[in-house]
């Protein structure tokens, strides 16, 4: 059994990851880690997340429990995520991180840590989203230079970062296939007067109500367009993907991995 710690267990993703991990024949939950000062600290991880006693504690200090685990799954906040990364590296623990909102400089810290520990950073752990990324790579290779590419993503009103980490990851797949970098090709929203700059990747972020996660990439030609979309109706697929990543990562040598490695895409 792979001994597992879930960081941010009472978040939207953390709750589902905890439940999926508890049902797994390969993962054994040993602790949950929440922010300091929360009323649920000291409670039972299962009772606090999905109403079933697991006899597994929730603590507010990862350092107290980190030596009991093989792998950490972190879907918390970017601030907490950097502390988790530091401790994982210091204690030589495998880390699956699905937290978004990191700057390029902060993302670089995960790559640096991967020289010493197995690290899997994924803006989206859904199997279908990662299949979509493969489709985007293939599509861009064939028609990317002859079409206008636009990415539209929708999330609920509580989503903090825009564009979403998933949308940025999609843009990076496209940009690299075009032989460039997303930072040089991305255009975020439009206003004013002027034509579209050829070769750019347009981004549009919608935030409203309780809208589920939705991503569509448009490849606009003349007289026709191609749309590739992913729509989520709940988050369990993302949680299952995160647990699959943890199972995979616990068996790897130090290195920087992605969901494509897990799925062998």
Sequence-ordered SSE layout with sheet pairings:
Layout: E1 2-7, H1 12-23, E2 27-33, H2 45-50, E3 58-59, H3 62-65, E4 71-74, H4 78-91, E5 94-97, H5 104-113, E6 118-121, H6 127-143, E7 148-155, H7 165-177, H8 182-185, E8 186-188, E9 201-207, E10 214-220, E11 225-231, H9 236-249, E12 255-257, H10 259-263
Parallel strand pairs: 1-2, 1-4, 2-3, 4-5, 5-6, 6-12, 7-9, 8-9
Antiparallel strand pairs: 7-10, 10-11
Helix pairs in contact: 1-9, 4-5, 6-7
Subcellular location: Cytoplasm
Binding site for NAD(+): 8-13, 98-100, 122-125
EC number: 1.17.1.8
How would you concisely characterize the structure shown here?
The protein has 265 residues and is α/β, with parallel strands linked by helices. It is 37% helix and 23% strand. Helix 1 crosses helix 9 (236-249), helix 4 (78-91) runs parallel beside helix 5 (104-113) and helix 6 (127-143) runs parallel beside helix 7 (165-177).
């Amino acid at each position: 059994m792979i001994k597992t710690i879930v960081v941010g267990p009472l978040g939207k993703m953390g709750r589902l990851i905890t439940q999926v991990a508890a049902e797994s024949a390969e993962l054994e939950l040993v602790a949950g880690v929440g922010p300091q000062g929360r009323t649920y600290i000291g409670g039972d991880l299962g009772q606090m997340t999905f109403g079933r006693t697991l006899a597994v504690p929730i603590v507010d200090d990862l350092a107290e429990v980190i030596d009991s685990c093989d792998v950490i799954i972190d879907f918390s906040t970017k601030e907490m995520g950097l502390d988790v990364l530091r401790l994982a590296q210091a204690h030589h623990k495998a880390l699956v991180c699905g937290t978004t909102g990191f700057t390029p400089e902060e993302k670089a810290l995960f790559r640096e840590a991967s020289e010493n520990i197995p690290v899997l950073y994924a803006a989206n752990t859904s199997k279908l989203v990662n299949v979509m990324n493969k489709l985007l790579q293939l599509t861009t290779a064939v028609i990317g230079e002859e079409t206008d590419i636009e990415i539209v993503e929708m999330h609920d009103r509580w989503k903090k970062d825009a564009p979403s980490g998933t949308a940025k990851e999609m843009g990076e797949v496209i940009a690299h296939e075009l032989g460039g970098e997303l930072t040089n090709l991305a255009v975020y929203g439009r206003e004013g007067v002027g034509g579209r700059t050829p070769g750019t990747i347009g981004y549009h972020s919608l935030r409203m109500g309780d809208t589920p996660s939705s991503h569509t990439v448009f490849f606009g030609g003349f007289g026709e367009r191609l749309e590739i979309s992913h729509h989520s109706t709940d988050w369990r697929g993302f949680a299952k993907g995160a647990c699959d990543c943890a199972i995979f990562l616990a068996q790897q040598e130090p290195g920087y991995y992605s969901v494509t490695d897990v799925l062998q895409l």
